[in-house]
């Protein structure tokens, strides 16, 4: 399941976007040059299972994200949910809107309800926009409000607000 993959022309200097030194804890960066014949560096990438494919950017990209399910230390277990992207104003975190119907017994009818959820968005998914439908998986708590990770972008576009036709 877990494997080290070689990427082309990746240096740790490319991944340094924060003030603290960014590295993958599973990759040893100071190996001797004489021992390794190739100039390619190692990158930790794993298959999360459950039928989800590892994105290409996770395999060949140069980002460092410890909360990414594909390259970090997060396991997906529990629920798999879908929702529509509502907001993208945080760094590496998005808000998705989950819409559902609630039955009211007194009136023998359904009412529309929704829940907003904060979800971690890995840098492996570059082309996500507001209105896209995403599939998320439950993981350990990543912050005060984030307990889910984006696993797949199922459909593109659409309107941002309002319920879909049933």
Brief digest:
The chain has one helix spanning 56-60, and strands spanning 2-7, 41-46, 80-87, 93-104, 109-120, 133-138, 148-155. The chain is mainly beta.
Topology:
Blueprint: E1 2-7, E2 41-46, H1 56-60, E3 80-87, E4 93-104, E5 109-120, E6 133-138, E7 148-155
Low-confidence stretches: none
Ends distance: 39 Å
Q: Give the helix/strand class.
A: mainly beta
Number of helices: 1
Order of helices and strands: EEHEEEEE
- Helix fraction, binned, reads under 10%
- Give the overall pLDDT as a whole number: 84
Structure summary, number of beta strands? 7
Describe the strand arrangement of the main beta sheet, using strand numbers: 3-4-5-7-6
Gyration radius, to the nearest Å? 19 Å
Shape: elongated
Largest sheet composition: 5 strands, mixed, barrel
Provide a descriptive summary of the structure in words.
With about 170 residues, this protein is mainly beta. About 5% of the residues lie in helices and about 35% in strands. It contains 1 helix and 7 strands. The strands form 2 sheets. A 5-stranded mixed β-barrel has the order 3-4-5-7-6. It has a two-stranded antiparallel ribbon with strand order 1-2. The N and C termini lie far apart (about 40 Å).
């Amino acid at each position: 399941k877990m494997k080290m993959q070689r990427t082309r022309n990746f240096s740790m200097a490319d991944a340094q976007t924060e003030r603290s030194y960014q590295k993958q804890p599973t990759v040893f960066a100071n190996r001797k040059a004489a021992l390794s014949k190739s100039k390619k560096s190692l990158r930790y990438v794993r298959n999360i299972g459950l039928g989800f494919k590892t994105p290409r950017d996770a395999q060949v990209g140069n980002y460092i994200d410890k909360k990414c399910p594909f390259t970090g230390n997060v396991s997906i277990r529990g629920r798999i949910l879908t929702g529509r992207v509502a907001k993208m104003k945080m760094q590496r975190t998005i808000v998705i809107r989950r819409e559902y119907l609630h039955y009211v017994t007194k009136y023998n009818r359904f009412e529309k309800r929704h829940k907003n959820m904060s979800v971690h968005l890995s840098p492996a998914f570059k082309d996500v926009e507001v209105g896209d439908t995403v599939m998320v998986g439950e993981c350990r708590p990543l912050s005060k409000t984030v307990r889910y990770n984006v696993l797949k972008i199922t459909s593109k576009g659409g309107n941002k607000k309002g319920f879909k036709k049933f």
